Predict the 3D structure of the following.
Amino acid sequence: MKALITWGGWDGHEPDKVARIFEGIVADAGGTSDVTDSLACFDDPDALKTYDVIIPVWTMSELSRDAATNVSEALAHGTGMAGCHGGMCDAFRGNPLWQFITGANWVAHPGGDGVKHRVTITSDDPLVAGIDDFDVETEQYYLQVDPANRVLAKTRTDVVTWYHSPNGVVDMPVVWTRQWGLGRVYYNSLGHKADVVASGPAYEMLRRGVIWAAESKAAAVGKDVSQFQSAGNHW
């Protein structure tokens, strides 16, 4: 496994520490990581296609249209992507293509940090098999989510009363997978602080997700991405 880990953005999410957790996951799986605190790594479309998995750890910040397109093409040709929390789905708020690739964008965390809530496993997929429902005390992400996502775990949003409450209780996805062309995409909304995903079931789900996404490149060998292409831009 060859991984690209790029980190930065809002310091409150401890992107350097989260990046080290991901680096450890890759190393434990026998892989190697190129780790950078710059988004310049997204400027070389050919280099991006050499990676098995791209792991973004960027909250907010800005990404150019060209850089997002480069990432899109790398994934479409078989590179995987995996990430967590704001480092992937509260990244680059002004870039709709990024949001389309990742499957969601963050809009709120009612109650802020330290909210007690349960993560419920909703699938028997190998990415969550054998992991029981568990409780966490951290931000409960409220996301605008692509209905095409394959949801593996969810949380109930009735924990904190706020302006959204008149709309009723929602089962909000926490973990999902999706495809982007030939590429695999994995996301886990936990990880407000590094310790949330450093151990326990949250870590185990993330570990499996990184490996699964990285296997995307091998799974794409011999397949033709042109089946997903048509003339013109679509975003």
